[in-house]
Amino acid sequence: MQFKSVISVIVLAFSISACSSIDKVVYRIDVPQGNYLEAATVNQLQVGMNVQQVQYLLGTPVLIDPFNNNKWYYVFLQQKAYQTPEQRTLIVNFDKRGLVTSFDLDKPLPDESKPAINNAIIQAENTAAKRWWQFWK
């Protein structure tokens, strides 16, 4: 009697631990937060632009320094599924007249013109070469 209960407890423990060891089964969406920064728009940013031009180009900043209104922070945080989150920060400095004096991007942005590694290129199959008896190919 004790032998059956010990075996059932062991089987139960193994079955519970087996379910918890499966990783990445549940689908997780990509979560972008903050100002979406693209390489094309950041490349258009130039020294000498005024506040309205920067806001039109990049949008409203996530943070304006409360002690220095002439420093804007654009923060972009993106977490793709089970990967570690990637944060990029763009700091735009203005002078007293409201013109851009400098800007600094902490990490380079990915180039959107290049296809991503995980994107598959789907090509149309040549259906003329297939015959009805070769449906498995």
Automatic annotation (TrEMBL):
Q: Which sequence ranges form a coiled-coil region, renumbered to this chain? A: none
| Membrane topology recorded in Swiss-Prot or TrEMBL | Lipid-anchor
Q: Would you tell me the Gene Ontology cellular component terms?
A: Bam protein complex
Q: Which GO terms describe its biological process?
A: Gram-negative-bacterium-type cell outer membrane assembly; protein insertion into membrane
- Predominant localisation class: membrane
- Where is the signal peptide, in residue numbers? 1-20
Origin superkingdom: Bacteria
Q: Which GO terms describe its molecular function?
A: protein-macromolecule adaptor activity
**Subcellular localization:** Cell outer membrane
One of this protein's Pfam families, by short name?
BamE
- Residues in domain Outer membrane protein assembly factor BamE? 34-102
User: Which keywords appear in this protein's UniProt record, sorted alphabetically?
Assistant: Cell outer membrane, Lipoprotein, Membrane, Palmitate, Signal
- Name the family the entry cites: Belongs to the BamE family.
Return the PANTHER family for the record.
Answer: OUTER MEMBRANE PROTEIN ASSEMBLY FACTOR BAME
Q: How does it assemble?
A: Part of the Bam complex.
NCBIfam families, per the entry: PRK11548.1
The UniProt function text for this chain reads:
Part of the outer membrane protein assembly complex, which is involved in assembly and insertion of beta-barrel proteins into the outer membrane.
Please identify the protein, giving its name as recorded. Outer membrane protein assembly factor BamE
Q: Which gene encodes it?
A: smpA
